[in-house]
Design a protein that fits this description.
Rossmann fold; 7 strands; single chain; alpha/beta; binds S-adenosylmethionine; about 15% strand; seven-stranded mixed beta sheet; globular; about 280 residues
Length: about 280
């Protein structure tokens, strides 16, 4: 019998979900049930930093969080309405209200949220409180598990193989070194091939060393690392490199979106300088 090593425990990262969960709430995208005291305190602690960054760099941490969240929502809506996606899996969903909102808006959707066991348990309780009739499922998943009940493979095996399927990750990939997250991307690309059509959406913070606010990006990087007691590496130096990386990991039809391209279409905070986050849409 072969036994694989248990995956690394990265639950130290989960505090960041409390922060973003409270950001979505503060900007009227969420409900009180998704907020926590930890999120409220973390937001209060970072208010002066956000104000400082907005003044000197033309955009605060929340600017890029809102940009990524709202553009992802828009791309998801397009995939549902134009490509007929009926099944969504949001990995590392944290305290995001997206699954709740989308299930209300699109009753035909099968929505599964996944996260590390502790965060998944918390989310399950929140959703039970809001919708006792269980509109969507919550499962535990550790993206670093190569096999077993918490692996991506097990998560995808629990879905309906006949449905066009979308996997979303938001606020996850920059917590891992590039070689590590690339193995996860390859696993996602491989897993999606078993569905009639498979799509993947993620945000990504690239390493734009020539950006006028790069030194403030480095400051934000240190802050995130401090709060989550780990690293927060930036990945790829250009949109071209991102596209090439995703193609090499097994995806096709890779589109790299800059939030600035949506300024005319979507209501969201704008950065005074170039944007710093990218949204990747890929097919498998
Ligand atoms: C910044 S939060 C993002 C939460 C949510 N997507 C949002 O944007 O509000 C990062 C999330 O990644 C989850 N996470 C950390 N390590 C993970 C892993 N190895 N597998 C799956 N999820 C993980 C955390 O529990 C947390 O919910």
């Amino acid at each position: 019998m072969t036994t694989s090593n248990p995956p690394p425990d990265t639950s130290r990262i989960s505090i960041s979900a409390h922060y973003t969960g409270y950001v979505w709430y503060r900007h009227q995208l969420s409900a009180t049930a998704f907020t926590t005291l930890t999120g409220r305190i973390a937001n209060a602690c970072l208010t002066p930093v956000n104000a400082f960054l907005r003044r000197v760099a033309g955009a605060g941490i929340d600017t890029f969080l809102l940009q990524r969240h709202l553009v992802l929502d828009h791309l998801i809506r397009q995939l549902i309405e134009q490509q007929g996606v009926e099944q969504i899996v949001e990995i590392a969903a944290g305290l995001s209200p997206r699954g709740y909102r989308f299930c209300q808006q699109y009753p035909q959707l099968q929505y599964t949220e996944a996260d590390l066991p502790g965060m998944a348990g918390r989310k399950r309780r929140v959703l039970q409180q809001l919708q006792p009739e269980q509109r969507h499922r919550v499962r535990s998943c550790n993206i670093l598990a190569e096999s077993g009940d918490d692996s991506i493979a097990a998560l995808l095996a629990s879905l309906d193989p006949q449905k066009k399927t979308l996997i979303i990750t938001e606020g996850l990939v920059n917590y891992f070194e590039l070689p590590v997250i690339r193995t996860v991307w390859a696993r996602i690309a491989g897993g999606l091939k078993t569905f009639p059509q498979g799509f993947y959406l993620t945000d990504l913070y690239p390493d734009f060393a020539d950006h006028p606010s790069y030194r403030y990006v480095k400051l934000a990087q240190k802050l995130v690392g401090f709060f989550t007691r780990g690293e927060w590496p930036l990945h790829y130096a250009s949109d071209h490199e991102i596209r090439a990386g995703f193609l090499a990991d097994g995806f096709s039809g890779v589109e790299v979106h800059d939030p600035a391209d949506f300024y005319q279409r979507l209501e969201m905070p704008r950065a005074r300088t170039r944007t710093l986050v990218r949204l990747i849409q890929a097919q498998a």
